[in-house]
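Project outcomes to date are best conveyed with an example. Our students and postdoctoral researchers have been running inverse folding experiments weekly, and each run begins with a structure described purely in tokens. The record below, which covers 234 residues, was selected by the lab manager from last quarter's runs and is presented without edits.
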């Protein structure tokens, strides 16, 4: 029995850079709903990546017919006016290879960024695109392949990662989702330095439930011995 294609299937193909299959799936999704803006955007980008600029342009125009202010469609349609086929099939618009958003406890986290760059810059991003983390004195910045500032990680995540990265930990970062006033990134721990060899980068926050009147008790605590030592040091 053949299962109908889903948006998740289309996204997986894009992340794996399987552009022909992405075209097939998004076309099938649009046959079911011609007003599916997300599918239109994915289809346009897949055509863009395969050098079919006319088809890409048509689909971005279809997006704007439904949403005249769609920032990604506006931006890419403007770029199409100056691009040639060779410009979009090489590294200039390269997105992430087959690494998908597979979560691993302690090693991955989806983070909502703060202090975002202007919409004109955010609109150039696509889901699955690789970004970089740059540790500063008091924050961790998110930047694109051209070293353009995109956003910063929240204070709690920045504080922890500054410490970890300073000790040799390394992280892979991808765009999870982007809107006019929102940027989510998917972080994956790839290497641990010796100092934190046995400490996960991301741990669940301890939650509490009512214990007795006027008291609370932790449901679970994921704080490791290394974290306790770090807290004592601080």
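After processing, the design step wrote out the following sequence:
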């Amino acid at each position: 029995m053949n299962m109908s294609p889903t948006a998740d299937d289309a996204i997986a193909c894009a992340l794996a850079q399987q552009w022909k299959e992405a075209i097939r799936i998004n076309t099938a999704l649009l046959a079911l709903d011609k007003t599916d803006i997300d599918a239109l955007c994915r289809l346009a980008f897949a055509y863009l990546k395969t050098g079919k600029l006319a088809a890409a342009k048509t689909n971005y125009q279809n997006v704007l017919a439904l949403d005249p202010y769609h920032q990604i469609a506006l931006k890419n349609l403007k770029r199409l006016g100056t691009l040639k086929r060779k410009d979009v099939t090489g590294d200039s618009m390269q997105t992430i290879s087959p690494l998908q958003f597979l979560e691993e406890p302690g090693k991955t986290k989806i983070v909502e960024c703060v202090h975002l760059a202007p919409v004109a810059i955010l609109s150039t991003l696509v889901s699955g695109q690789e970004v970089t983390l740059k540790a500063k004195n008091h924050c961790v910045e998110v930047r694109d392949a051209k070293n353009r500032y995109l956003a910063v990680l929240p204070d709690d995540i920045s504080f922890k990662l500054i410490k970890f990265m300073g000790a040799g930990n390394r992280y892979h970062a991808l765009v999870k989702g982007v809107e006019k006033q929102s940027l989510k990134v998917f972080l994956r721990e790839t290497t641990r330095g010796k100092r934190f060899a046995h400490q996960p980068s991301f741990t669940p926050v301890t939650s509490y439930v009512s214990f007795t009147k006027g008291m609370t008790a932790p449901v679970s605590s994921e704080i490791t011995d290394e974290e306790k030592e770090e807290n004592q040091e601080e």
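Residues 168 and 193 are 4 Å apart (CA to CA). The chain has nine helices and eight strands. The training component of this project remains on track.
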